[in-house]
Each structure stands twice: as structure tokens, then as C-alpha cells.
């Protein structure tokens, strides 16, 4: 009651609150009747739903009670039936024991019935055996198998009945087995025929597919008999002799052996008979596998039941057979080209459209689901072995190429020229053709291996260039022993220099073509330096050759003979120009560098002649005459080297000769300091001993003047750190001259001290 009152109070409070919400404004009073009707409809709707829900629950309870009542009745009926069955079972125990004789009679009747049923076959066993043998020999396999099944059925039924009657009676069992003894031989002969057909399955399915179908039908029949006999063994413990035959399992073994034999038998030649034996073997294998799998897809699949998954099975058989074969090949002592052929075939050809990735096969199986033909460790081992062999081979190839090129250096004919007229030999082309061929082969394997081979080539190239430089030096030394030999020494030395340029271009071309990364390799700097050294040495050797011819004429400079008039400089210019007609066949930048070096060296040798004090001018006329000759000869050198450098600026070096001439030409000794200062300011690398030698050659400078000039120059000595072409740096003054000058300077210093 308390709960009902509380519920009523809550309902009233809620209603009051709801009415208050509806009548908040005065104009809403006109709608009171409308609100009342709406609330009455809602109340009626709620009451109707409550009544329906309660009625539904009551109907469910009524139905449940009815079902429980029926179940109780069924349980009572079952209980009564079980009681009746128990009563009947107790009464029939004695009756069952009395039927033992009947049971034995039934067993005996069954045996006799089986014997009567097989009586005809029993008496005709020898005849059926003979007929079956003939059918097997005539390849009438289905008919032969039918007769064989009849014979086996008769034997198995008799043995089973004997087993049921007396399983321990081995005498009767052996009697039956011996009587049907030839049946097992027929089964073996038939099996041989079946395996023979399966071994020739690829040919049979093209020529006579019905034969293959017959074999599969026979094997399927035997599989069913095997299953039936195994089921009976579980029930009775008896199984006929020779069962289970497991011919289906044997069939797959035969097919596997057939595939293996087909792959192993593809090798038709040996390494001794044909150097390309590996390529031929792999191509034959590719053709066999592809042709056979297409035959399996188009013909053989139709000869086997769908649940055999024939194509998948053959695909795996061929894959495994090929894998075993290539692993055997990988284990042999392969040469470098054979390793590449094998790996290219395994890693690329095998999965390509030419073989397992053929469009006709892709629709049936995905080769990527199979294991690799070769384990990765075997691939890595082969690649390592190839790199070792390749390193050894390429060292030998490069050595042989260099030896061949060296022989050409001693020919009496000039080297060949390229389309632009530059001398060259065939060495760069031979070397980089060799590299190109090996890189193309390596690229067939994979990108990583290709880059490894490229790095190895560059490493070997560096070692080769070191030997190339050594051979060029030896070539020069051989020539110096007899300058008449080789006859084309200059031309081949030019070709050696040009080869360095060709080597650089070829290396950059290889890297751009076969190396993805633009970063320099560890051998780049060494190769660049060695090539520059070889070219620099070659240019130096050629200049040495020029100056050996100029030596006599250079020795005439700044002598009494020179002062009275000689053609030494004329001869020098003609000789240099003649040589540089040949040097025009040197490629840039070596040609330009060599011309600059020849220019510098001519000027240095001229100034060396000045410093050697071959002449001391006796008077102003000699100084003027000598200075004029020096200025004239400087102009000759300028003209020559402007011509050789196609008009480029060449004045600075030759102006050093003219500047020295101005020191000699000066007539007023009191202005000598200014002239020397001008010379030093133009050529800051000039040293004290050079000034002393010039003043000594002039012949009219007093000791005081020399002392003053030297002291002043030492106090205001300019720096020459930024000079690009130092002239006096490498010029030494003979010791005799310096000793006499030093003694003179010491005496002057002592006099001043006094």
C-alpha cells in the first residue's frame, strides 16, 4: 500500500508539472479541452499496449504448460517400453545360446556358396592365366586387368572364407595360395606394362592418349580395391596377399623418375667436346621443360581425374628435377663463363616468358610460389667464385693486351690516327671492349652483381695503369740508350699520351652506363692521378727529346761566339716548331699544357745561360750589342709561341729576357739600382744570387754599387707567393760564380767595417 501511495503521489506530481507546463500563458486556457482530449488518447493507447503485452505473456505460459504435460506423458510411455524390452531380453538369452549350431551352419553355407560361385573360375584358372598373359603382351591392358581382377577376386574370396572358418589352418591357406600362385606374376607383369606406358607418357599422350587413360583407369580400380581390403582388414583382420598394391603412389614415383631422367638426359655434349656445352645444355633443358609442360596443360590433364591436380603436380616435378640438376651443375668445377651462363639462366631465363613464365603456363601456376632453383648461399658462392676467376682472368687479359701494345711501339710505321688526326693505339679499345663484354654478362644476373664487377674492373684498371706508366718509362729509357730507335718513338709516345684521354672518357662512359650512383668510387682518384701522371710523364719525355736536340745550340747562348753572331736561336725556334708539328697530334688539354711547358723551359734555359756567366761584357758597346741581341731573340720566342698557342698571351715569360737585357743595356751605372729594382718587382721570385750573377756578367758594377744594391733589395724584398708562373725559382747559379761573388762581397764588407 505504501508503494502504491508513493506511486500515486509521483504520478500526481508529474501530472501537475505537465499541466503547469501546458498552461503557462493565459491564451493557452482556450486550448484546455484540446489538451484534455490529446492526453486521453495517449492514455487509451498506452492501456491498449499493456493489455496486448499481458495477453501475449499469458498465451505463452499456457502453451508452455501444455508442452510440459505432453512431455511428461511421453516419458512415462518410454519408461514402460524400456521395461518391456528388458523383460524380453532376459527371456531370449537362453534362446540365443541354443542358435549356435544354426550360426555355424550359416557360415558353412556361406563358404559353400562362395565355392560354388567361384567353382567355374577355379577350374579355369590355368586357362584364364594364359589368356591374361597374352592380353598383357598384346597391350590389351583393360581386358587383361578385368581377367586379373576375376582371378584375384576368386582367390581372395576363398582365402577369406577359409580365414573365417579356421584362421589358423595354414595348410589350406597355402593350398589356395599355391593354386593361384601365377596370379601374382600376372599382376607384376601388368604393373610393368603400366609403368612402361607412364615412362613414355609424353609421347603416348600425343600418339595414343586412350592408352594413358586406360592405365589411369586401371590404377584407379586398384586404389578402390586397396581401400576396400584395408577396410575389411580393420573389421576382420584378414587381407589378401599383395595388398595394398599402392599403384597410385607407384605411378607418381614413376612419373617423377621419368621427369628426372628427361632432365638429366638433356646433356648431349661435354666441355671437352664443346666449350659452349653449358649454354647448349641449358637451352635443351629449357625447350624440353616448356614443351612438356604445354603438353601436360593441353593434353595430359584430360587423361587424369581432376582431383589429381595433374598440372600442379607435373609443374612441381619439373621444378624439383631442374633444381636438382642445376645444383649438381653448380657443384662442378665451373669456369667463369659457365658460372655466368648458369646463374643467368637460373635467375632470369627460368622465370621469364621463355620458360616457366610462358603465357600458356601463367594461367595455370605462379612460379613465384616455388622455392628458388638454387639456394641463396649457393648463388653467393658461385658469384664469389666468378669474381675470383674474373679477377685472375682480367689480370692476365690486361697483361697480354699491354704486351701486344708494347710490341707495336717498336714498329717502323706510325700509329693509327682517329678521325680527328690524333695518334692512338688499339689498347684502350681492347681494354674497354673486354670490360664492356663482362659488364654486359654481369648485367644479365642482377644490378648488384653488375656494380660489383664494375668496381672490380676499375680496381684492376688502376693496377694496370701503374704498369702502363712503368712500361712508358722503360720505353723512354730504351730510347735514350740509342736515340735512333725506335724509329717512331715520338709518334708512339704521343699515342700513349692520347690513350690517357681515351681511358678517361671510356671510364666515365662505363660508369654512366653501368653504375647507378653518381658518387665517386674509391678507385676514381687513384685512376685520375695515374692517368695524369702517365700523360705528364709522356709530355715530359717528349720535351726532353726536344731539348736533347737543342742542347748544343743552348750551350752556344750568351757566349763570345753568340755575341759575334750565331744562328743558335734561329735553329732552336725551327727545331721546336718542327717538333710541335708532330705534337699537334696530342689531344687537349695535354697539347696546351705541353706548349706552355715548352715555352717556360726555353725561357728558363735561356736565363740559365745568362746565370752561368759564359761571358762578361768588357765595355758598354758589348753590353749594348748583347742586350739588343737578347731583346731580338726574346721577340723571336714570342713570335714562335704565339704561333704555337694560336695567338694566346705569351709575353710575360719572354719579357723576363728583355728585362734582363735592360739591366745589361743601361749605360749609367748610377741608375743600375733602379733598373734592378724594376726587374725584381716584375719577377719577385728572383734571388740574391741571380742579381749577383747579372751584375758580374755586366762587368762594370763596382763593389760598393753591388753592396748597396743588394742591401737595399734585401730591405725591400717583395713577396712572390701569388705568382702563377715562377721563372727564377728553378734556376740555380753555378757554385764557382757564387763563391767568387761571396768572396768579393765579404771583402767589401770588411773594407766598410774598417
UniProtKB/TrEMBL annotation:
Q: Tell me the Pfam families matching this sequence.
A: Sec6 (PF06046)
Report the subcellular localization.
Answer: Cell projection, Growth cone; Cytoplasm, Perinuclear region; Golgi apparatus; Midbody
GO process annotations (BP) = exocyst localization; exocytosis; protein transport
Keyword Acetylation carried by entry: yes
Protein name as catalogued: Exocyst complex component 3
- Give a GO cellular-component term: midbody
One GO MF term attached to the UniProt entry: SNARE binding
State its role.
Component of the exocyst complex involved in the docking of exocytic vesicles with fusion sites on the plasma membrane.
The similarity annotation says: Belongs to the SEC6 family.
| Assigned keywords, A-Z | Acetylation, Cell projection, Cytoplasm, Exocytosis, Golgi apparatus, Protein transport, Transport
| Organism for this UniProt entry | Oncorhynchus mykiss
What domain of life does the native source organism fall in?
A: Eukaryota
What do we know about how this protein assembles, alone or with others? The exocyst complex is composed of EXOC1, EXOC2, EXOC3, EXOC4, EXOC5, EXOC6, EXOC7 and EXOC8. Interacts with EXOC3L1. Interacts with BIRC6/bruce. Interacts with MYRIP. Interacts with SLC6A9.
Keyword Cytoplasm part of the UniProt annotation: yes
Amino acid at each position: 500500500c505504501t508503494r502504491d501511495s508513493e506511486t500515486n503521489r509521483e504520478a500526481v506530481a508529474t501530472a501537475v508539472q505537465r499541466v503547469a507546463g501546458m498552461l503557462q500563458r493565459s491564451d493557452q486556457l482556450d486550448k484546455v479541452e484540446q489538451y484534455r482530449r490529446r492526453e486521453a488518447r495517449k492514455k487509451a493507447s498506452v492501456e491498449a499496449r499493456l493489455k496486448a503485452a499481458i495477453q501475449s505473456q499469458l498465451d505463452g505460459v499456457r502453451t508452455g504448460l501444455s508442452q510440459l504435460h505432453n512431455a511428461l506423458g511421453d516419458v512415462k510411455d518410454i519408461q514402460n517400453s524400456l521395461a518391456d524390452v528388458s523383460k524380453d531380453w532376459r527371456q531370449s538369452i537362453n534362446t540365443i545360446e541354443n542358435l549356435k549350431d544354426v550360426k555355424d551352419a550359416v557360415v558353412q553355407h556361406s563358404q559353400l556358396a562362395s565355392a560354388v560361385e567361384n567353382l567355374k573360375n577355379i577350374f579355369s584358372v590355368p586357362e584364364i592365366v594364359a589368356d591374361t598373359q597374352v592380353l598383357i603382351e598384346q597391350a590389351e591392358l583393360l581386358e587383361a586387368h578385368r581377367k586379373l581382377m576375376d582371378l584375384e577376386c576368386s582367390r581372395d574370396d576363398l582365402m577369406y572364407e577359409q580365414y573365417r572358418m579356421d584362421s589358423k589352418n595354414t595348410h589350406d591357406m597355402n593350398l589356395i595360395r599355391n593354386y593361384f600362385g601365377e596370379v601374382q606374376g600376372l599382376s607384376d607383369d601388368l604393373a610393368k606394362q603400366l609403368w612402361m606406358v607412364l615412362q613414355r607418357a609424353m609421347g603416348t599422350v600425343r600418339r595414343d592418349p586412350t592408352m594413358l587413360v586406360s592405365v589411369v583407369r586401371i590404377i584407379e580400380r586398384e586404389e578402390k580395391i586397396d581401400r576396400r581390403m584395408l577396410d575389411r582388414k580393420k573389421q576382420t583382420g584378414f587381407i589378401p596377399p599383395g595388398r595394398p598394391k599402392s599403384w597410385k603412389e607407384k605411378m607418381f614415383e614413376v612419373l617423377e623418375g621419368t621427369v628426372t631422367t628427361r632432365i638429366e638426359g638433356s646433356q648431349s655434349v661435354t666441355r671437352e667436346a664443346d666449350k659452349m656445352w653449358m649454354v647448349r645444355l641449358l637451352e635443351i633443358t629449357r625447350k624440353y621443360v616448356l614443351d612438356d609442360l604445354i603438353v601436360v596443360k593441353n593434353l595430359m590433364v584430360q587423361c587424369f581425374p581432376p582431383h589429381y591436380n595433374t598440372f600442379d603436380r607435373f609443374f612441381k616435378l619439373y621444378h624439383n628435377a631442374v633444381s636438382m640438376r642445376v645444383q649438381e651443375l653448380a657443384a662442378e668445377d665451373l669456369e667463369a663463363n659457365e658460372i655466368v651462363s648458369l646463374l643467368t639462366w637460373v635467375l632470369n631465363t627460368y622465370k621469364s616468358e621463355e620458360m616457366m613464365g610462358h603465357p600458356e603456363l601463367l594461367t595455370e601456376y605462379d612460379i613465384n610460389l616455388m622455392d628458388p632453383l638454387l639456394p641463396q648461399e649457393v648463388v653467393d658462392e658461385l658469384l664469389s667464385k666468378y669474381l675470383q676467376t674474373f679477377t685472375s682472368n682480367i689480370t692476365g687479359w690486361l697483361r697480354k693486351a699491354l704486351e701486344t701494345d708494347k710490341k707495336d711501339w717498336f714498329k717502323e710505321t706510325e700509329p693509327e690516327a682517329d678521325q680527328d688526326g690524333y695518334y692512338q693505339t688499339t689498347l684502350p679499345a681492347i681494354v674497354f671492349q673486354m670490360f664492356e663484354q663482362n659488364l654486359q654478362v654481369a648485367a644479365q644476373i642482377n644490378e648488384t652483381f653488375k656494380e660489383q664487377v664494375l668496381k672490380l674492373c676499375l680496381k684492376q684498371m688502376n693496377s694496370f695503369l701503374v704498369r702502363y706508366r712503368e712500361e712508358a718509362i722503360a720505353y723512354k729509357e730504351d730510347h735514350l740508350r740509342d736515340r735512333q730507335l725506335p724509329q717512331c718513338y715520338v709518334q708512339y709516345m704521343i699515342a700513349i699520351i692520347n690513350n690517357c684521354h681515351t681511358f678517361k672518357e671510356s671510364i666515365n662512359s662505363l660508369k654512366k652506363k653501368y653504375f647507378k650512383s653518381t658518387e665517386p668510387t674509391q678507385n676514381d682518384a687513384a685512376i685520375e692521378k695515374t692517368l695524369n701522371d702517365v700523360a705528364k710523364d709522356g709530355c715530359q719525355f717528349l720535351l726532353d727529346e726536344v731539348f736533347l736536340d737543342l742542347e748544343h745550340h743552348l750551350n752556344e747562348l750568351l757566349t763570345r761566339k753568340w755575341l759575334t753572331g750565331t744562328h743558335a736561336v734561329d735553329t732552336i725556334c725551327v727545331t721546336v716548331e718542327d717538333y710541335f708539328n708532330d705534337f699537334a697530334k696530342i689531344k687537349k688539354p695535354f697539347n696546351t699544357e705541353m706548349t706552355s711547358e715548352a715555352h717556360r723551359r726555353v725561357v728558363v734555359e735561356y736565363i740559365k745561360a745568362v746565370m752561368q756567366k759564359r761571358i762578361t761584357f768588357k765595355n758598354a758597346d758589348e753590353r749594348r750589342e748583347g742586350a739588343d741581341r737578347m731583346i731580338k731573340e726574346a721577340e723571336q720566342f714570342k713570335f714562335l709561341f704565339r704561333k704555337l698557342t694560336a695567338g694566346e698571351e705569351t709575353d710575360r715569360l719572354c719579357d723576363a729576357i728583355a728585362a734582363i737585357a735592360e739591366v745589361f743595356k743601361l749605360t749609367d751605372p748610377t741608375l743600375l739600382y733602379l733598373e734592378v729594382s724594376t726587374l725584381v718587382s716584375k719577377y719577385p721570385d728572383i734571388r740574391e744570387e741571380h742579381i749577383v750573377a747579372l751584375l758580374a756578367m755586366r762587368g762594370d758594377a763596382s763593389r760598393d754599387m753591388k753592396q748597396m744594391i743588394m742591401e737595399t733589395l734585401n730591405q725591400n724584398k717583395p713577396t712572390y707567393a701569388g705568382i702563377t708562373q715562377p721563372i727564377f725559382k728553378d734556376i740555380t747559379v753555378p757554385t764557382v760564380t757564387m763563391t767568387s761573388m761571396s768572396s768579393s762581397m765579404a771583402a767589401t764588407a770588411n773594407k766598410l767595417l774598417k
